[in-house]
Amino acid sequence: MESNTVNTSLEISENSKEFLMESAKWARFLAIVSFVGLGIIALVGVLFLFSIIPMTSSNSEAAQFMPPIVGVLYLLMAVLYFFPTIYLYRFATSIQTALSESESNSLELGFENLKSLFRFIGILTIIVLSFYVLTILLMVVAVILK
Question: Is residue 59 included in any domain, yes or no?
Answer without folding.
Answer: yes
